Amino acid sequence: MERLSKKLDSGTYAKLTGHLVNNISLWDLSTDDLAMMDITEVGPRRIILNFIERNRESALNQDENIVDNGQQNESLHEPRKESIRSVLEKYGKFQKTLTKQLDCGIVPDPKKLLQMNRILTEHFFGDMMFHGKRYPTWQEKQQLAVQILEEFPHLEQTRVSENAPVESYFFWVHDGLNTGCHTGLIETRVANMRKDVSPEDRKFRRAKIKSIVVTEDQVSTAAHISALNPTPGNAKIIADGMAQAHDLHESLLQKKDENRLHSIIDTFPHFLSFEGEMIIQAFDRLHEHPNNGPSLSALLRLGLLCDKTSWSQVEDDVLRGTLRLMKALSNKGVKRTSSLQNASLGELAAEPLIRWIPFTAREPGFDELLAVKEIQPAGDPHIICAAEHFKKGNYYIALDKTIIPCGNSAVRAIEILFKSFDIFGVKAPVLLRKLDAMIASNVWRSKTSSKFKSVIDLSLRFQEFLKNPED
């Protein structure tokens, strides 16, 4: 684990240790286990799986045999010395299959093979998993498969393909590839047995989900404030009511629902009012008043130092710095698509963050909002500026055809965009994830680290820039 920690970012490594992965259980990790731990980024997953593949055999070969009362037990990588047949003979319901088919060179039907596999895996691995508090290694699972074929050679007919090992129907390392999940009846059964291991003994644990109890009063409060008009006179009543109904908001965030965004907006429509003020307040509650760092404006202006020429026509200096910061963080290899027509290169490059929609009316207001809603296509979350290209104007956040007015401050629009990801349970778009990580870890400190090397490097430069020369 110590060697792996030097290859991973601190956030990913913390997820491994948080799920109690250690020097023993590390070697049994699969892609499914990593997904369960919410390690979904390609880079960290590849580092972990490659590390396991290159080092598993040498690490496991160093395991010493267990010694109990001075007597050496069997190898950790081999099932107990007991014949396959003697185990099957103990199960009366399997006797007919054993004597009438297996002993006669007949391959039983899949249902009977599943029954045989269940008997053998539970016999050889059940005590190990439920009392010995460890999972069988891939060598142990493969050894059991080999023993089955040694006992009943005619089961060679079950091999999954012509080039596969004879025991592949029961167990096949990485499904015949260099990396990936193991396959076969034994692997499937062991995975199912893992579900029955008591939570405190599991090697890989899911992070605990916060238990939330929503009361009828909170539901009533949410319904009451949702009916109020978003006027200055009602602002405090609405803000207090949303604070009282915060548990209801958190419970909606926990639901794995495709319509979660709209469910939250339907329950708390004033997230779309007051130029995003309710989003900012809810973010502070969600993160229990995060330890704010330097101002967002200071970080975004750092981008002005990253590039001298890009987006020089953008009128707002903070927005210009943000775009340059986004460019400095880079997203090489990410496929881009665009909904803009006849757009300049500058507009296309800025599209993941902001899009300009010219509006000709003299007085911005409700008509402008309607125009933005009409023009806005569905797509990833982004900022809209109702102005000529690259000019200042009124800013709006677009979230799945939902529009949030933010006033005429670019800094506020950027703040609301990135805080809205947490408030509505929406993932930051791929092309904004590094910028999101940069802001979250350096400004409002809702994240302690980032898995992106470019974010880590630029954060160090930013902290050095802010450091007091007298320190």
Brief overview, please?
This protein has 21 helices and 6 strands. With 471 residues, the protein is mostly helical. It has 4 domains: 1-59, Orthogonal Bundle (DNA polymerase, domain 1), CATH 1.10.150; 86-196, no CATH class; 216-272, no CATH class; 296-333 and 343-467, no CATH class.
Label this structure with key terms:
four-stranded mixed beta sheet; mainly alpha; 21 helices; single chain; two-stranded antiparallel ribbon; 471 residues; elongated; 4 domains; 46% helix; 6 strands; DNA polymerase, domain 1
Describe the structure.
- With 471 residues, the protein is mainly alpha-helical.
- It has 21 helices and six strands.
- It folds into four domains: 59 residues, DNA polymerase, domain 1, CATH 1.10.150; 111 residues, no CATH class; 57 residues, no CATH class; 163 residues, no CATH class.
- The protein is 46% helix and 5% strand.
- The strands form two sheets. The chain has a four-stranded mixed β-sheet with strand order 3-4-5-6, with helices on both faces. The chain has a two-stranded antiparallel ribbon with strand order 1-2.
- The radius of gyration is 29 Å and the shape is elongated.
- About 3% of the residues have low confidence.
Side by side, the strands of the main sheet go 3-4-5-6
List the domain count as a whole number: 4
Kindly estimate the percentage of residues that lie in beta strands according to DSSP.
5-15%
Largest sheet: 4 strands, mixed
Structural class: mainly alpha
Please give the share of residues in helix: 40-55%
The radius of gyration over CA amounts to 29 Å
The low-confidence runs, each spanning 5 or more residues with pLDDT under 50, are 63-78
Structure annotation, total helices: 21
Q: What's the β-strand tally?
A: 6
String of helices and strands: HHHHEEHHHHHHHHHHHHHEHEEEHHH
Shape: elongated
User: What's the end-to-end separation, in Å?
Assistant: 35 Å
Mean pLDDT reading: 83
